[in-house]
Write a structure and sequence with these properties.
about 375 residues; alpha/beta; Arc Repressor Mutant, subunit A; Rossmann fold; 2 domains; seven-stranded mixed β-sheet; two-stranded antiparallel ribbon; 9 strands; about 15% strand; globular
Length: about 375
Amino acid sequence: MSTATSTPADPDAQVGAYAEQLFGLGLAAFEAATITIGRETGLYAALAANGPADAATVAIAAGVDVRYAQEWLDQQAAAGLIETNAAAEATARTFSLSEAAQVCLLDPDSLASTGPLFDFLPAVGALLPSIVTAFRTGAGIPYADYAVHDAQGDFNRPAFLHLLATEWLPAVDGLRDRLSAPGARVAEFGSGEGWAAIAIARAFPTVHVDGFDLDDASVVAARKHAAEAGVTDRVHFEVADVTDVTAIPTTGYDLVCAFEMIHDLAHPVEALANMRRIAAPDATVLVVDENVGDEFAAPTENPVERLFYAASVLHCLPVGRCEDHSEATGTVMRPSTFRAYAERAGFTGVEILPIHHDLFRFYRLVSA
């Protein structure tokens, strides 16, 4: 019986390939920072409103220095992020933002909106020394220190406004009819800037939603958004620790839900137990969290899992380690981990709902 042998890889080729991989990552990081600048300064918005336009026109519209605008526009065109006539003389060049780019970068309600992803970068950059310190000490970093509530809200806003009430909730048997009944009540844990609660209130005209979040800035923004949406008579937001049994005294909710926040908690079991406690006996308890693989795989070509791991290193794990005896879950909460948390919280079963989404997995928790 013969044994197949493989030729050892050329060490120089391995070094070259790894260096190329690192260069690509570094280039992406640098170019990502320029997208953040374009959003922060209003350059993309100015370009969309005035293009095709030269650097001076864009700079005036955005209220920035002309020379900086010229450099940014040239860089964006070189990266293929905006369009240009590529004239040799800088003063003769005009630039424009494609319709596709406008949708992705400037339309906050579009399901293709990816601009908010780049709004996280300033927080990560500012807190990088604190993150390094956390690595060395095992400490955590409070969520409020990141000041990413706007970016987080904007990132999830399109899915909540377009999919939550039209696709996700109707996938739960009987839930749409129950929420349509007069007097139906919903509790949302980790309500953030309020977009999920607002979407539910818009879809079900008689439902009342109570949102609970520990971040003061998020609650302030949520109340503002609810007022702008005209639903403050039926949607209320309170600052509350959802892991504290005394923080939410009301019970008997028809739907208790938590969207993309259980993995952030130092004590997820206590939050899940609280969800079970305040739900009516035959209510729906729904948790939406990250759509990661059932098992660890490396290397992975799944860009979503890679994004979640990076987010965990930079944000979610440090946030989750701010309290003593933390579960230290991190962003990559696999189904087996969540099932174990639910069982410890007193649920008898966890059903993964047949809803497809690139980022999220949908869990319905069952009580005896």
